Amino acid sequence: MLSADPTAADGYRQLRQSLAAAPRHDVVPELQTLSVGIRLRVLEMIEQAGLGHIGGDFSVTDILVTLFGAVLHVDPERPDALGRDRFILSKGHSAAALYATLAHCGYFSTEELATFTAPYSPLNGHPNRRKVPGVETNTGPLGHGLPVAVGCAIGARLRDDDSRTVVVLGDGELQEGSNWEAAMTAGHQRLERLYAVVDRNRLQQGDRTEETVGLDPLTEKWASFGWEVREVDGHDHGALLDVFAPSTTGKPVAIVAHTVKGKGVSFIEDRAEWHHKVPDPQQARAAREELTR
Q: How far is it, in rounded angstroms, from Cα 149 to Cα 104?
């Protein structure tokens, strides 16, 4: 299993301390800069590996950066600490974005990112908790992350600690019925420290969600299962900081984050074929230029 990078972890801890001392929205420029860096790293990883899910990676990047940069109470040098917040990436095919974020936060060396999906690399195409610190549960088969997150939230309540559980789901993933069984349980249990974030980019493998199995009206669906529902621009770091405020109703919180698949690169944005298409060298160069403007 990979181990923490002490130097990067120390830098991350200092960043979190400075963010905690600053007025909340003064940290937005730093989060924006980190998001650009994560997208560039993901681009490099996927180009080198020759496979990946760049569209979903780019749509979820700002959410991951905000969570690990300023919201979650976690420690890369103590990834299994009792009382930590739990984060679950249910849309496990966006592993590259999660790995890049974890590495930049010091969970392991950024040099390991070059091994993404290589034979015997711990950085598989989907996250594995036995190999990568910071990964709470293996994800890949869609529809499993929210049920596990419900169990984590119930466990925290039984331990009487104040940790939060945050799970990020793809919107196409919501076509899996297991999510709604879990949502019904969480609403009944009033798990107010559970947050389900829907990466609502309206695309899934092959087509638009509404042309496959329609999800709208999505906010009303979550509310009907007993959740407090919030909507947010999933690329606005300031709005994302605000949306993770504590529940005001004693209910679990569903966050519908409106995003753009492939955010940041014009020829990738909002195009279904970039669910798992790999940029060729010319496209990668053009993408890198757009991201660094």
A: 24
Q: What is the pLDDT of residues 27-68, one digit of tens each?
A: 899 899 999 999 999 999 999 999 999 999 999 999 999 999
- List beta partners, residue 197: 168, 255
Rounded-to-integer distance, Cα 179 and Cα 114, Å: 34
Q: What is the pLDDT of residue 22?
A: 66
Tell me the pairing of strands 203-204 and 207-208. antiparallel
Q: Hunting for tokens 């020829």 — which residue is that?
A: 267
Nearest to 109, CA basis, from 5, 26, 32, 240:
5
Q: Which domains does the chain have, with CATH numbers?
A: 6-291 (3.40.50.970)
DSSP of 95-117, one letter per residue? Answer: HHHHHHHHHHTTSS-GGGGGGTT
Q: What is the pTM of this model?
A: 0.96
State phi, psi for 172 to the nearest 5 degrees: -60, -30
Classified as helix, coil or strand, 232 is strand
Summarize pLDDT for 181-195 with one digit per residue, the tens.
999 999 999 999 999
**Residue 293 structure tokens:** 């403007």
* Tokens standing for residue 160: 């009487």
Check if the beta carbon of residue 123 is closer than 8 Å to that of residue 132: yes
**H helix or E strand, kind and range, residue 51:** none
The three-class DSSP label of residue 64 is helix
- Structure tokens given for 61: 């990047």
Interval 91-117 mean pLDDT: 96
Q: Work out the end-to-end distance of the chain between its first and last CA atoms, rounded to an integer number of angstroms.
A: 37
Say if CB 38 and CB 61 are below 8 A apart.
yes
Q: Return d(Cα 47, Cα 202) in angstroms, integer.
A: 25
Distance CA 201, CA 191 (A): 26
Residue written as token pair 């909507």: 231
Residue appearing with tokens 């936060």: 105
